[in-house]
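Protocol step 6 of 9: fold each sequence in the batch and record its structure tokens directly after the sequence line. For illustration, a two-sequence batch is reproduced in full.

Sequence one:
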Amino acid sequence: MAVLVLLVATTASASGLSDHGADLFEREKIEFSVNGFFRVRGDWLNNLDLDRGTTPSGQPLFPVPLGDPTGQSLFGSDMRLRTDLAIYAPFAAAAVKVRFDLIDNLVLGSTPVLSPGAGNAPTPAASPGQFPATLLRIKRAYGEVLTPFGYLAAGRMGNMWGLGMMSNGGDCLDCNSGDQADRVAFVTSLAGHLWAVAYDFSAVSATQARKDGQRQVILDASTDVHSFSFAFMNLKDDHTRKRRRLAGKWTVEYGLLGSYRWQDNDVPSAYLPSTQPTVLTPTSVMHRGYKAGVIDGWLRFQTANFKLEAEAAVLLADAEQASLLPGVLLRDRVQSLQVGGALETTIGAPGSVFIGGLNLGGASGDPAPGFGAYPGNATTAREGELDGPQLDIPRDTRIDNFRFHPDHRVDRILFNEIVGTVTDAWYVRPWTKTRLLEFRSYQLELAADATFSRAFYASSTPGNDAGLGMELHAALTWASKDGFDVLAEYAVLFPFAGFDNPAQNLKAMPAQLARLRLAWRF
């Protein structure tokens, strides 16, 4: 169960409290700032179903070739053009900022027009019902101003905290989603800290068009989902960190966030899929009594040759009434206690030829079958399934598995592709990076890491064993200071007994992934 996490971004490309207000000052005329990237990438996926047969529902762990279910390889390629635009007002410390993604994660060749004698040409939008539904997505649009009392922002803005373990703005080149929030936020500085408060319009239920047909009105305010956050941070800017590091001084930064979300009533008929037009009446409103809260702490410690960054979160949630059917009430409430944490270390000074470190983390689990990363519309958890709901009312009324944000990637295959994210598991990941070549504005780097992982509950895995796997990964990056990057990477997963198929007496076999990415930054 996700709850609000606070972010106030200073540029549309920034997703951290550390950046807020830095670019706001009075200008003599209107000014514009544009930055972003264009990314093209292709994947080769080999045996991601692990050759371990199907789950009890008859599905493999990962899609297999349609024409040959015994086949091994799948291929995919996509692209994204991301642009972050900032418009600075004249004679005021104010700006409007927008993020829009064009051809966002569009699969190459997925929108062809087949005309005899004309070849293939991409259409301006995807086919009806095909993902993505449109080639243009406006992801952020908000205004900000620096007042004598602090920084004020309102609109749809990015959402990031700490390492991005729980809430992630999705700003990296390989990020696929990213969090946004419809928010009003205020940040001020006091006693050497940043203090922030924010209110989110998290969700509304039933709405109806007004007379002009252009606007809507909320039919019942008690069905709105409200979120309120408070945070404080002790931060340094990049220049201060570098100056202290070169002077041989260590730097400590930290932050604490508290967030509370609630919903009194609900109108499930307004959002549940239906084959018939839905007519909303007073009987459509039902009591929900949902409350959730999170405490998230973040720490960064840095010396001349060492950096440690950590994030830990505790989430509590309670829903008095979990039923989605008006008039059908459940006796038991649904509750949740989730805990997650991540730690990342770097040994070696920035810019060194060779650096390395150790990353580790974990996300609390739930003994119900399946990981619970993306349970979908399933209503019953079944042993041997990869995923499924983590509650079974009235026998099981708890959902205790913490889920990492999918853009906080710790590997390439097991969590990123097969499970979907880190949940009900812990991992240890040693890593290294070395600069092989540097020539004028270009440099060639080689990175390597190994990720060992285990589940907290054996009952959550398809093989009923806590052992998940060992994944080895290497990446070669050709980077230009002028903004052009090439990345070639390879990963192999050696699955453990947690992915075996005892029912069919099949052992999970290794899986492989290779990726090539071209990126232009501007």
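Sequence two, same batch, same settings:
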Amino acid sequence: MTALDWRGVAAEGRDDLDVATTVRLRARSRALLRSLLRPHKRRLWWAVALLLVSNFAAMAGPYLVAVGIDKGIGDDRLLTEVVIALVIAAVTEYASKRAFLLLSGKIGQGVLLDLRTRVYDKFQTLSVAFHEKYTSGRVISRLTSDVDAIGELLDGGLDDLVIAALSVLSVGVILLTLDLPMGLVTLLSFPLLLWISRWFRRESALAYRRTRECVALVIVQFVESLGGIRAVQAFRREPRNDEIFGQLNEDYRVANDRAFKLVALFAPGIKLIGNATIAAVLVFGAVRVIDGHTEVGVLAAFLLYLRRFFEPMQELSMFYNSLQSATAALEKLSGVLEEPSTVPAPADPVPLPSARGELTFEAVRFGYRDAVVLPDLDLVIPAGETVALVGATGAGKTTIARLVSRFYDPLEGRVALDGVDLRSLSEEDLRRAVVMVTQENFLFAGTVADNIRFGRPGASTDDVVAAAQALGAHDVFAALPDGYETDVRKRGGRLSAGQRQLVAFARAFLADPAVLVLDEATSSLDIPSERLVQHALRTVLADRTAVIIAHRLSTVEIADRVLVLDQGRVVEDGSPIELLERGGRYADLQQAWDDSLV
């Protein structure tokens, strides 16, 4: 599988992974777990020490009962000492286990905090190409349901799993030491225990991996349906969405049902084997007591230890579903964290503290999957020049804008800013130098002022107001119910399209980039709003390099230079007036635009 196997498995619902892939996934998961636990190494050693003390105190109980029965009855002093020892053991077990649970809880929460931070940071650093290609629902699933699965194990199951495993090991050794013949009888159950445990481990691993895949698909459908709720309701898509969600929901139920059926077979199976073993030991031990080969107290202690042996085995079965679910989630998350970036940060970035804004495309070849969009582009945009890109849909306009913003890297050739390959610039220098304004600029929850200072978080209120005034937008923002402190609400829903675009321009103006990319930034506006934005646009573009993509030729008129693109090649190049006088494709586009306004 490729580095993208965390998505491939989930998307295809595969449960037939080959051995090599399974081994690699588990190795990768263990490596992630080790890195998460490494900062807590000292606390882990303390937790181990507390666990050993708690286990030692718990194991002392049945032995003290055996001493009390065999030697304490008739000896009041010894019986008193045994009772006191039992009380001390009980208090020690309580105190050490309480301390262990508190400490392990801190470790677990620290691990979850680190994991959530890593996953969140990773998704932020992954390229725009990644987020355009893969659904937000699957991304949300990684950060919510998968992290929650690990959290459930750390919060509610891991402690018991560790304690149970240590108890099983300790009791096994004690049984063989206490009475070897009865211990050997107990060992007769081990082949059955081993077989049923290995069967459950194999089948449950597949089952719980499937549950993680199904819940991811449920979240994907839920997020996409709500994200496009307007289209859903406008086209009465609800019945079809209900069918799709119902099927995914049913698949999730079936996957969980399969997991519960496995537990329903495993847990009673362990109990059946345990009760049969206890019965066999009771009969065999009774014979040994009658024959004088062992004592009643030893038999009683042996039976108590057997209970402590098989009860944890049942607990292990009950918590194994959490373990398998968390393991499957850890596989997905480790894949996320190993996802390579398609626009990696340079190992040794070239500093560019103050960009002039000259853009150069040198033999740039780029395409999406198998479709080549830019076969061989050579282009120079001098610093301070405003260039408009026009052409039919698919001509390569938006691709050029994405390459300038380094949302993608060219397959061949290079895109340079002031002679420096964009791939050699640090993220900080690049984002300070290049800003993109799109048709639907995302506004975050918060005030108008908060959204304007998004590109320069440290800007003061005076800076925000000054930017709006420079654009001629101050009166628009001041007229809002709470002025610049007006809450824009979800996705800027409280503002009109024109107001949102003015916020975007003010944000770009305040960020003061050397290069500004406008990707159809005025195409969704009505005429009055467009005129208002056009005034702001002239201010924003002054003294900086600009690349404008526009279907509305009214926006192109302010450009110094127009490039007409066709299949990724520049077929016309000149000022708007020159191209109109020359005749050709741009003149035809202008005529078609004028006709559309009649």
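Proceed to step 7 once all outputs are recorded. Observation for sequence two: The first strand starts at residue 359 and ends at 368.
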